[in-house]
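Sequence decides. Our protein:
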Amino acid sequence: MGHGRPPRCDRSHTPRLARPLVLISYGEAIGLQIHPGSGTTAPLISIDPAPPHTARRKPKKKFLRRQARDRSQQLRLSFQIVFLLMNVWLGGEFYLWVRQFEIGDSALAVARPAGVEGWLPIAGLMNLKYWLETGHIPAIHPAAMFLLLAFLSIAFLFRKAFCSWLCPVGTLSEYLWRAGRKIFRRNFRIPVWLDIPLRGLKYLLLGFFLWAVAGMSAEAIASFMRTPYGLIAAVKMLNFFRFLGVTGLAVIGVLTLASMFVQNFWCRYLCPYGALLGLVSLPSPLGIRRNAETCIDCAKCAKACPAWLPVDRLGSVRSAECTGCLECVAVCPVEGALAMSLHPKLESMLESKRKRKGMPAWAMAAGIALVFLGLIGFAKTAGYWNSHVPNAVYQQLVPHANQAQHPMP
């Protein structure tokens, strides 16, 4: 034979025992007994087939739909409208009061509305320190202090509810981003790496004001309030908007546009008043609580939160950014999954055998109104509401308000 192609293997001469040997070896390996010639197998041992690999699924929770219709947002809107209209009325009355002195009207038919001092939070902070140090109610801008106390009390008891229920700037900011969502079909979220340092700006501003007030003694505060600038600080604020320059218009325009694109831009990044109220709200006995047992993880609460808080991943919302707006509670579809309720420790002390369902929106609204009207009513009844400044002094200062300079320390 040549050295070319190798000879073919004749399969007919292959021993028949070769394959059964292989099968026997394989069969023994897997525990089967093979009967030659029969083609049947019998198991030596019982083998249970391995169950198919399946991913673990969370047990499906029982979905108990809310029966009662949530009306928290309609209630909050009514508070916003009333408070906004009240501020418009106060602004109009204050303008008429100022015009009386500017035109030299001796009749003085319009009285000075002390409520405008709510727009002087720095004066309120200074007077609060004066009162704490001396125990005496200040004679100049006392309403600013009582309004600040009311808003601080509301923040402690009902989270930062002043910002979302009462503040006219907060109301305008909210409906600007709602308008932006309708016009541009969306709002924008600033990336976390930029959002966090930007949120720090309002705390820097708050820190500066706290530092400035903390460095003043009670005598220095009283002296400041008696200066022409201190006496007519509210008039200077009004004149800033009456005679708004190009720079002021540009700043307001930028803030307005930013508020249409980013939810609550001013409140979230720049408002020092909101920063103070947020810090006061941290030890609040009330807060948004999520029941993990009934929550179906739909994440509607997190999508609805204007403060961008991950409500769906928290058992209790303790952030200084929470304004107590109840929007997360309003969109929750499950009965008892989300509510404004007491801190668990307080709830355990006060809880009876009947399970609590959290604070209803009407109770929160009533509490806000009670604190606000109660402190103002006390100040008016006790004679602490109005500034004790003769009209003759206002007649000398108001017409020349733009000439009054800040008394630098």
The chain is about 55% helix and 5% strand. Residues 84 and 292 are 38 Å apart (CA to CA). The first helix runs from residue 18 to 30.
